[in-house]
Each structure stands twice: as C-alpha cells, then as structure tokens.
Design a protein that fits this description.
By secondary structure, this protein is of the alpha+beta class. It folds into two domains: about 60 residues, no CATH class; about 140 residues, Jelly Rolls, CATH 2.60.120. It contains four helices and nine strands. Strands 1, 2, 3, 4, 5, 6, 7, 8 and 9 form a nine-stranded antiparallel beta sheet that branches.
Length: about 250
C-alpha cells in the first residue's frame, strides 16, 4: 500500500516537473519574440528618419531563412572603361577644289615668247592715249607681222565703274592681238577677250596702264565668232584707247 502510494506521488511529481519546464520554455520563447519585434521596430525607425530604404527584416527564430536576389545593375563595374562616345564630326570640312575653268569651243591662245619684249620695252611719250597705243602696236609689227584692224576705240572709266565691252568680229583661222593705253590717272588697266559664249579666251597678265592681250602671243579663232573685248580699271580713273591688230 505504501509502495503504491509512493509511486503515485513520484509519477505526479514528474508530471508536474515536465509541465513546469514546458511553461518555462513557452514564457522564454514569448519574451524572445517580444524582444525581437522591439528591436525590429527600432531599426525601422532609425532607417525611416535617415531617409533610406531599411534592410529586409530578420526572420524570427526558428523560421526558415530566405535569400534576396538582387537584379544585375546596368552601371559600369569599377575598374572597367566606360563606353567611348561616338567620334565628333570634323569642325572644318576638307576644302573643295574649284571647278575647272570653261574652255572655248571656237578660240584658243597662241603663245610666242619672242613677242613679249616689244611691249615690255615700250614707254609712252606722246601723253595722248590714241597716239601712244598706235606707237606701242607699231613697235611689235615686225615680230607679229600683223596689221591694224578697224578704228582706235577710246573711252573713260574709273575703278568703281562697271567694265566696258567693245565688239570684236573674229574670223575663222585668224589671230588677234589687243593693245591698250591709259592716261596717267589709271594705274592698272585690264583687258580680256571673250568668245560669244562668254568664255575668256585671253587676258592681260600685267598691272600697268598699257596692257596687251596676249603679252606673249595672240588669240586665234577656229570659227567665225562675235567675240568681245572687256575693258576694266583696277586702280585709278581716266581715259584709255584700244587698238586691235590681226593677221
């Protein structure tokens, strides 16, 4: 009887001990959860006050851990070279070559270097443009074997004026040389011969008041043409005279 009573008391004591342990573990677990929640709330407050995104909350004790995957960033890794920008266009384009000068289909320039000295050695003496231009052309007669064609043309012009045009009735298979003389007021008188299409066939190469076209030759036509002589003043103003000689 006493042994049975003792065993019963021992069994009840063991049951009470196990119950007490279970309650103690439950209380400690509740306390741990409360402390964890309090710490998480404080952390959220700190991140919110700093204006930054808080880190993900820690899982409670006993919960399975989760791994957060961060998507790949588009930023260039440290130490890697940034992609180079497209090359900028050249500030200055390559210079474009001017188009070639048009060529006459009815005339061409004939060169003869032996004709140049007769003009280069000429000095105006009469102080009258008509007589001076006749004397200059006469001095080249032996070399060119040409004769005067038509009458002496005269005019007045200044460097601010538009060029003046004189007619030249050119014949096929004939060559022409144009002489001009200006007064002392004109320092640079310019002469050019154009065909009927407006193409320059010949022009003087000097900056003086007594130009010749051509300086070392003549202008020769392969076809009949209503050509022209263009007179312009590069510097100064005054009177001038023009004579045309041909073969």
């Amino acid at each position: 009887m006493r042994r049975g009573t003792a065993r019963m008391y021992l069994a009840r004591f063991a049951l009470a001990t196990r119950t007490l342990r279970a309650l103690r573990c439950r209380v400690m677990g509740n306390r741990a959860r409360s402390a964890f929640l309090l710490m998480g709330g404080a952390t959220l407050c700190v991140w919110a006050c700093a204006g930054e995104q808080p880190p993900p909350p820690m899982p409670p004790p006993g919960a399975p851990a989760t791994v957060q995957v961060t998507p790949p960033s588009s930023a260039v890794p440290v130490g890697s070279a940034a992609p180079s920008a497209a090359p900028e266009a050249s500030a200055s384009a390559a210079p474009v070559a001017p188009p070639p000068a048009p060529t006459s289909t009815v005339a061409n320039a004939k060169s003869d270097s032996s004709w140049a000295p007769c003009h280069q050695s000429y000095k105006a003496t009469a102080k009258e443009v008509s007589k001076d231009v006749a004397a200059m052309a006469k001095g080249c007669e032996k070399l060119t074997k040409m004769k005067v064609i038509g009458k002496t043309a005269t005019g007045k012009q200044a460097d601010q004026d538009q060029p003046q045009t004189l007619p030249l009735d050119a014949k096929a298979n004939h060559c022409y040389r144009v002489y001009a003389q200006a007064t002392d007021g004109i320092k640079d008188l310019d002469i050019a011969v154009k065909d009927s299409a407006g193409v320059i066939v010949g022009q003087d190469s000097t900056d003086d008041p007594s130009p010749v076209v051509m300086e070392d030759g003549a202008v020769c036509f392969t076809k009949d043409d209503k050509a022209s002589i263009v007179v312009s003043v590069g510097m100064g103003s005054g009177s001038y005279a023009v004579q045309v000689w041909g073969d």
